[in-house]
Input
Amino acid sequence: MGVGQVDSNDQQSSSRVPKESTLALLADLGIQQRSLHCDKAGKMITEITDRADRMPMKALLLDSPGAPETLRVGDVAIPQPGPGEVRVQVQAAGLNPVDYKMMANGVASWRYPFIPGLDVAGVIDEVGEGVEGWNKGDAVFYHGNYARPGGFADFTVTTTRTLVRTPGNLSAIQAAALPCAGFTAFQALIEKLNIQSGQTILVQGGAGGVGGFAIQIAAKAGLEVITTASSRNAEWVKSLGAAWSIDYTTESITERINQITNGSGVDAIIDTVGIETATEGLNMLAFNGGIACVARLPDLEKFKQLGQALSVHDINLGGAYRSGSTKAIDNLGKTGKRFADFTSKMGINPMVTEVITLDQVPDALTHLSKRNVRGKIVAQLHQ
Output
């Protein structure tokens, strides 16, 4: 898999689609598109711009539920934004485990061939009816609705409710790495666990996307961070802000937590691994502690220490869309805006370790499914 290294200072620029170029030229000539239907020349130009919208775009297509290797690059029509929506020219799209997990079984609302890809960064290319506060040319990123076509394409359409403006000190590639993993970590630590300076936190799975962002957020917030990682990734997680790295392949996590905390336990846990580690985590929490679960909730039947005043939090970003609640969807947008501000001001590392092309996404998703990827993989579609 051919991979390039991202330059953290590289600012991505947008390119225009044929319609945009045509309209810009007409504007330079002092001609408004909506007045063109009045004469023959106007009708011709309007037809040209309409055809531009119908021109095919490149996209990564899933013909039926299946593994990443069944994806193919093909041509599909450029989508059009509806009321309250914008069309985004995709500059970069982040890869996440949820991509291959959703592809495996599909979703009832999907129409095939389907375009996956939840994390998108790019430039607004077209604005739908009733949209206010967003304009063509705005640099944006967001976590998309998995029930609708996604960002592994030249263009995609999304609601404005979850749009986030890309900070000026972040490139599109960096922004594309943030939504799924970054929003999840931020929601878990800041909005659910309500972490406080001076506390101790355990991050289960520190080398991955959610874990890496969680380490940084907690460290920036003044917590003592303990994480689990293989020996290969020990220095990596420490560079992100972890004070302690427990090698889960050779050490007992429970014993090490007891040693590090002198038997008092940790104030908070974010678990990105699964039901077994989440269940084990309940016994590592201090009184009044809390655990946020990204993968699976703990088996409470196996937890016998009642009276510890513990809290258990389920984290599910995509659930906001599935709920159908505009309040939940708006809150997802607010989480994104808060995390973007936090990232920009606090110097959060987007952790982009691999930059690939669209046709390399299937292999990269397969690699990601083996759960040994450090940081984030991002596909670059346009400069």
About this structure: The chain has a mean pLDDT of 88. The longest helix spans residues 326-346. The two ends are 20 Å apart (CA to CA).
